[in-house]
Request: fold
Amino acid sequence: MDERSSNLSRIPSIDEILKTATAAAAIDRFGRPSVVAAIRRSVESARKAVVAGSATPCGVEAVARSAVARLEADAKLNARPVFNLTGTVLHTNLGRAVLAEAAIEAATAAMRQALALEFDLKQGKRGERDSLVRDLLCELTGAEDATVVNNNAAAVLLALNTLAKGKDAVVSRGELIEIGGAFRMPEIMSRAGARLVEVGTTNRTHEKDYAAALGPKTGLILKVHTSNYRIEGFTKAVSARAIVALAKPHNVPLLNDLGSGTLVDLARYGLVHEQTVSEAVAEGADLVTFSGDKLLGGPQAGFIVGRRDLIARLNKNPMKRALRIDKIRLAAIEATLRLYRDPDRLAQRLPTLRLLARGKPEIEAAARRVLPAVGQAIGSRFVAALTACASQIGSGALPQETIQSAGIAMRVAGTRGSGRALNALVTAFRDLPVPVIGRVEDDAFVLDFRCLEDEAAFIDNLKSLQCEESA
Reply:
């Protein structure tokens, strides 16, 4: 007890620590209130350690450094960049599309200075923010008019609320989807004030099913891209063109929700064809909705294109103001859409398409170059080897399609404590200055290199890896 009391008496006071050069430098970085609070916590931790009989250093400099470490840890942003080596290009949990440099520059300019957001420079009077991208959207999709809101769910909500509030919204049972975060189409329809009218069955819906549901109370027909699943086998679906032919005599509009939505034919880049927005417009859909941060490769947004009179009704809905997007995203969207005017160089300039179009030989060569650095970083407790991978587009786009890729698989050397050791390795990669996110499969931690473009930064990041040899 005497030794413990002696150690407690040697713990420096807050004033003593504040006089150190370490504390002075910390005050310049973090401000005096934050430094004082951190020192107070470090002093209390040192006191508890002494009481518990720990040999933790508790000198003036030791406690000051402990406080600085706390401040540095607390200063790290929660929204941190990561290396996405999951193999899913448009990973919902990792921010989906990486923006093009042109979009980043446009967004940065919008943040740094005033912007002609709702100001008509030609007329010198108030304008509309949608006008920044309306003409581009019409040009790229062939639609009469266009508007934009904060995501595709909002686009569907706005269209339903405007055209089908208090009316029937007809939809096939096979298209009543649920996507990530328990987002269910029937619940969105209910929130929009529309009455859901289901037609057909889960696997088969016919034209006669839609025809039987049409009546004076019908507000619209909704066709939904199933996005994250496919029904195969004994199936039947009705094309948008056929639905339009049925609905037009009743003056009932068709809302075609494409989900991800793409402005170009993905087959051009070696992927499976996905219906483009312009194809959906050409089929006669009165309104088409799609996302901005998925296959389009831009920031989060929801687009609605189609008939001019219907778009005008959407824009008059008070809900539109609640769902509108800010100047930063609008600037990035405009810059992204302008890239589509030059389709021959689109894959070079748009990261989403560039990453999706990368061939397996190129990716495998990158993994081979990085393999020695990974092997050195993980130590003798683990074994790293090249492996074939199957990448995915992600965010509900072409859910059954995979793209041949390559990467590195890390396994525990031996079997003793392999599960705990592998979990510790995964955690160690997440704890890097730039966290590395991969996937665990077949008792291995796999890094798919499809989305790795800066090899030098990745290798430099590995220098901070802390692996426990005895894990």
The CA atoms of residues 203 and 234 lie 7 Å apart. The chain has a mean pLDDT of 91. The longest helix spans residues 32-51.
